[in-house]
Amino acid sequence: MRKVTAGLFSSVDGVVESPHLWQFDSFDDELGAGMDAMIATTDTVILGRGSYQEWSDYWPKAQVDDDFAGFINPVEKFVASRTLQGSLEWENSHRIEGELEAFVRDLKDAEGRNISVCGSISVVRQLLFADLLDSLMLMVHPVIAGSGRRLFEAGDPVTRLTLQDSTITSKGNAILTYGVRRP
User: Fold this and answer.
1) DSSP-derived secondary structure letter, 61
2) What does the pLDDT look like over 77-88, one tens digit per residue?
3) Mind listing the pLDDT tens digit for each residue in 128-162?
């Protein structure tokens, strides 16, 4: 069975939105190596509407020799959206028809390598609380962002996690990988 993974850059105060606004001086080689490891094991990406719209405008124009552009542009991408209209122009992009959770269950049972949720805070939340996310990597930067969307919200269900891996990088980032603890 394929694994569904997600990785989000986070500030110490839990902000995961717009990391480019606060991570610039703490991104290091170890974070880059972690991204390379994700790329090497992934052949399918899931995006939410917001991430799709932002990324489809940026990454096709990015430098061809950029490692992430070389990965994200040709990889098969599935977009979870109830409001996105029109055709999806970005290479290898497909709209998810039907319910996200059923689609992901079927995708996990199909042949292939790992499935990665990129960006897409609401998709990460939905799959985590539906117990469809096999690992959640939080790359916590040594910064307080102050404002921005956080991954977890008041009223979320109590959800026990298991630490699968942890690393502290040379610039003080904590890379924490969790899975849902099952009884």
Assistant:
1) G
2) 999 999 988 889
3) 999 999 999 999 999 999 999 999 999 999 999 99
What residue ranges do the domains of the chain occupy? 4-180
Q: Cβ distance 10 to 138 under 8 Å?
A: yes
What would be the CATH architecture of the domain defined by 4-180?
Answer: 3-Layer(aba) Sandwich (3.40)
Distance between CA 18 and CA 75 in Å, rounded? 23
Q: Find, among 167, 95, 163, the residue nearest to 135 by Cα.
A: 163
Q: How many CB atoms lie within 10 A of CB 169?
A: 20
Tell me which long-range contacts 34-40 makes (C-beta under 8 A, separation of at least 24). Answer: 34/7, 34/137, 34/139, 34/167, 34/175, 35/7, 35/67, 35/68, 36/67, 38/5, 38/7, 38/114, 38/116, 39/67, 39/68, 39/71
Counting DSSP H helices and E strands in the chain, the numbers are 5, 8
